[in-house]
Amino acid sequence: MNRRSVYMDNNATTQMAPEVWQAMVAAKDLYGNASSMHGFGRVAAHAVSKAREQVATLLDCAPEAIYFTSGATESNNMVFNIARTLIDEGSRRNRIVTTKIEHPATIETVKYLKGLGYKIDELSVDATGLVDLGEVKAAMGDDVLLVSVMTGNNETGTIQPVREISELAHGCGALMHTDATQAIGKIPVDFKGWHIDYLSLSAHKFYGPKGIGVLACAKGAPLFPLLHGGHQEGGYRPGTYNNQAIVGLGVAAELARRNLGDEQQRLWQMREALRKGLVAAIPDVVVNGNNEHCLPGTLNMSFPRAEGESILLYLDLEGIAVSTGSACATGSLKPSYVLLAGGLDVELAHGSIRFSLGRYNTMDDVTYVVEKLPPIIERIRMMSTRQQ
Questions:
Q1: Does the first or last residue of the chain, that is N or C, have fewer Cβ atoms within 10 Å of its Cβ?
Q2: Distances (CA, A) of 336 to 116, 161, 240
Q3: How confident is the model at residue 326 (pLDDT cuts 50, 70, 90)?
Q4: What is the per-residue pLDDT across 257-295, written as a single tens digit (0 to 9) for each?
Q5: Distance (Å, rounded) from C-alpha 268 to C-alpha 292?
C-alpha cells in the first residue's frame, strides 16, 4: 500500500504547473541565442518577448519595465546595489529603510552593507508581523534614498501595506522597492497602482521553473547592473537568455493572472479549514501572523512544549511536508527571527510550524493533516521534560 503524500511547503517552492512544463518541452528547440540576428535567434527572441509581455500584464506594467534575472535573490541584490552605487557616487541621500522581517535575500544583504558602513534602518513590526505606518513615517527624511518592504512574509504570510508605505517613501523623495515573491498569484500585485519603483519575484514560487525571476523597474528609476558583460536586457542584466526557463516563467505568469480570483478564494478556504480544525483538535496552540492581512495559503502555528523540528520529522513519517520557517534558513537551529521580531517567546518560536498550501492541495489534504497532527503533538508533549 502506497503511503499518502501531502505537500504543504509551497512557500519554499512549488510544483511546476503541467502547462508550464508542456510549454518548456515545446520550447526545447529554442536553442538559438535570442541575441543573434539569424532566424534561430529571432525565433528565440520572439519567445522571450512574449514572456516579457505575459509578466508585464500580470504586474500591470510596461514590458520595458521587466528585466529577467536568476530569481528574487539576485533582483533584491540589484536594488540594494543601485542604492549603494548612488551613495558611492555622492548622493545627498545616504540612508536605506527596511524591516526586520524581510527574506534572508534582503536581511543578509543588509548585514553585509551595514558591515561596510552604509546607514540602514530596520523597522520593527507588531505582534502580528505588521509594519507600523507611524514608525515608517517617523523614519522618513530627506536623507532616505531607498525604502524596501516585502509584500507578504514568507513565514507568517502577513501582508504589508505596500501602497501606503510607497506613498510615504515618495512623499520624502525616496525610491520604493518591494519583494513580492510570496504574493504573486495569491493576491493582486499592482506595480503601477502601488507606485512601486522596483519589484522582485521568482518564478518557482508560483508554479514556474527554478533559476528564473524578474526585477521590474519603473520608467525613470535609477538602474545599474549588478553583473557586467553583454548587452542583454539593455546591458543591465548581461548573460545569454535561458529561453526555456523564460518561456516557463511567462506561462506561469499567464496562469497566475488567469486563476488569481479562484485560487485566492480556494487557498483561503483550505487555510481556514486547517486552522479551525487544528485549533479544535489540539489544546493550547498559538496562531502566528495577522489573520486579517494574510497570504491566503499560509498558516503559521506554534505548539507549546513541542519543538518544531520534532513535529516536522513526525509529520514527514506520515508523508506530510511542512516547514519550521524559511527554507533559506533551514539548517539553522536558531528560532525564527521573523517570529522573534514580533515579540513571540523563544520557546514558541522554536515550536512553530509553517503550513503553506498551494494550487494542487485539496480539502482531503487538510483533513489528513487535521487527523495526523493531534496525536503527534500529544506524543511529543508526553515526552517533553516540561510535561513531567
A1: N
A2: 25, 22, 38
A3: very low
A4: 999 999 999 999 999 999 999 999 999 999 999 999 999
A5: 11
- Strand pairing partners for 286? 302
Classify residue 48 as left (phi > 0), alpha (psi -120 to 50) or beta. alpha
Which residues are known catalytic residues?
328
**DSSP 8-class letter at 159:** B
**d(C-alpha 383, C-alpha 231), whole Å:** 61
Q: Which three cell numbers stand for residue 47?
A: 519567445
- For residue 327, pLDDT over 70 is answered with no
Q: What are phi and psi of 183, to 5 degrees?
A: -90, -25
C-alpha span between 371 and 366 (Å, rounded): 9
User: Which is nearest to 54 in space by CA: 254, 350, 319?
Assistant: 254
Angle at 15 between CA 318 and CA 104, to 5 degrees: 90
HSE at residue 131, side-chain half, CA atoms within 13 A, is: 30
Per-position DSSP letters for 75-102, written without gaps between them: HHHHHHHHHHHHHHTT-S--EEEEETT-
Give SS3 for 120. Answer: strand
Q: How far is CA 316 from CA 15, 319, 321, 323, 376, in A?
A: 18, 5, 6, 10, 11
Average pLDDT value for residue range 128-157: 97
pLDDT greater than 70 at residue 2: no
pTM over cut 0.90:
yes
Kindly state the cell numbers that stand for 357: 498550501
The SS3 call for residue 119 is strand
